[in-house]
Amino acid sequence: MKAERTIALQLSACDVGEHAQAQRSVEKRYGALAGLLSHLPGMAYRSRGGVTHMMEFVSEGCLALTGYLARDLIDNTSVSYRDIICAEDRERVYQELQRLLHGEFALRYRINTADGRTRWVSDRGQAVRDDSGRTLTFQGIVQDITTQVEAEATLAEQQQQLRLAFESSNQGWWDWSVATGRVNLDRIGADILGLGVDEVETTVELCKRRVHRDDAERLFSLAELNLLGKTLMLHTEFRLVHSSANVIWGSIRGRVIERDGEGKPLRMVGTLQKISERREAAERLALLAQYDALTGLPNRVLFRDRLSMAISRAKRNQALVGVVFLNLDRFARVNDTLGPAIGDRLLQEISTRLREKLREADTIGRLGGDEFTLIVEQAEEPLQLEHVAEKIRAALSAPLMVDDQEIYLNASIGLSVYPRDSEDAEQLLSNADTAMYRAKSQGGNGHLFYAPEMTSKSTGRLSLEGELRHALERNEFVLHYQPTFAAATRTIVGAEALVRWNSRRGMVGPSEFIPIAEETGLIFELGNWVMLNACMQAMQWQQSGLPPLRVAVNLSARQFMQSNLLDTIAGALRQTGLAPELLALEITESMLMYQHESIAETLSRLSSLGICIAIDDFGTGYSSLAYLKRFRVHELKIDRSFVRGVADNADDAAIVTAIVSMAKSLGLRLIAEGVETEAQLQCLQELGCDTLQGFLLGKPEAPRQFIERFMRPDDPLS
Prior knowledge:
Blueprint: H1 2-38, E1 43-48, E2 55-58, H2 61-66, H3 70-73, H4 81-84, H5 87-99, E3 104-112, E4 118-129, E5 135-144, H6 146-168, E6 171-177, E7 182-185, H7 187-192, E8 201-203, H8 204-210, H9 213-227, E9 234-241, E10 247-259, E11 265-274, H10 276-290, H11 300-317, E12 320-329, H12 331-338, H13 340-357, E13 363-368, E14 371-379, H14 384-397, E15 400-402, E16 405-407, E17 410-418, H15 425-441, E18 446-449, H16 453-471, E19 477-486, E20 492-503, E21 506-508, H17 510-520, H18 522-543, E22 550-554, H19 557-560, H20 565-576, E23 583-588, H21 597-608, E24 612-618, H22 627-630, E25 635-638, H23 640-643, H24 650-666, E26 669-673, H25 678-687, E27 691-693, H26 703-710
Parallel strand pairs: 17-18, 20-22, 22-23, 23-24, 24-25, 25-26, 26-27
Antiparallel strand pairs: 1-2, 1-5, 3-4, 4-5, 6-7, 6-11, 7-8, 9-10, 10-11, 12-14, 12-17, 13-14, 15-16, 19-20, 19-27, 20-21
């Protein structure tokens, strides 16, 4: 019995020893495991199943992750891990765990740390089950992924911005698997190719069939070079044909991004953009760069290029090339009178007529303004250009109809010939321009061939223009006055102010500088000077004790149409104190050919001020006599061409008689200009002309000589 008890005690002591040893071994392994887990980033855990998520084990990483000690979380001693999970994510986490009771799980959610911060964590683990499959615990590791989540959010935002920018740029992307021939497209890429939404995955063969046949070989050759690694990037523009047969322009970029071990291409990606609008805009810009926007004719740049090519052909074939340079006579007057809109329509009509009258092989260009040019190739002799010039004049001879108005225009034409006048395109054009100006200086409505001596005269004209621009500053202009007399008594009744230029080269007549002033726009400043000084002189004569004398000032069409004309005239009268009835304005008859409301309004307002309106050179223009009833005018000046033959030419006498009769019936006064003989004077007196002017009675004189000769010689000179 004692022996049995001893054996039992020994066995019991042995069992206790083995158990203690096993316990120490477990604790040792646990300590080793805990030490290992403490070095892992994050918190290792084991928790019971259920909604409480009660922790049975938590590694030391808990403190760094949550701000709580491990012992605070075990058995929910101080805080439940479930409560650490953000309220917004708590239900979702629980539902995910329930769904994954029998397998591994990977969750992302937010937790609230002990110091009040919010962190994103990754919770990865698995459910531990017993033999019956019942879930006993969850074990896993929770790691801080806040930096990763923030980086992902930033990346997602950048990708969204990139996607929006990509879509707003109207670019689509494509991804071509070279091995399989499959092509993936986004919505924009599919739309550019003309595919349906359900065809965003297609084949390279179908894409090839969309390429315009004229561009296919070039596009595929460039793609092949990139596939072979001979180019860094595929980039070209080409046309696409949609299923609706609509042709659009596209731009493609792409490159190989994946090759196999042998260097064979596996994958190529890139972008596709619709550029039809850009191409159309570029074509329009190219058109504008070479063609005149108003008439559609070649502009100076294109005309010069074509002239250079024509000269090259003529040089090879030993042929002639003619250059025709035409400028419309009096167009500036028409433009100023009727306005630029009407002027543009006239230029369009003229360009149409030139196209119709000339050969299709001849290049017609518009250099600007009212200047047109023509290249005549295969001319057998220079005189053939004269025939071209006559065709141009014939094209312009018929009246131009604008708003039921007949407008007549002529042209001054200059001609130059390769190789006689020059072998250089620019010089050949310049020579034709010089010849045109020479034709214009001879009265216009004609043509002239270039001659070398014209260049020196053209240079002189440019020099004159330069001096003219400084003439007002240097006070080089002077006014001379030609008297007008009552026909019945030969007493002086007025004076016409005529501008002269006392330049450094001597006295220059108005026929030389007035046309230049008209062309350059200097006529406005010069006209204002004449108006002010003529009114001032008339007032000075009165203040010196001489009887009031009406002074007449000529207005060009360009002056008459300036918007501030009334203000300028009223200002001159106000500044000098001259009475409006002592001022007469002379306008040319050709201005009345345009039935324009602005002309009638201007004449009416001038008449309302008391200013006299006289029609100069009457009988030489195109106007209808009915206009005299419409416009408020007071005097007619019979042109000197009729006065010259009034005493010995039956036709001239009949014309003057008719003018006098018409004027009397309309209540208009008459002035006959250019009276040079007693016979003319007597005839005009007999016909009943009111006022006379001419060299017989008095030439234009400077103010001092004017008083001495026509007023009172004994009075002090002004």
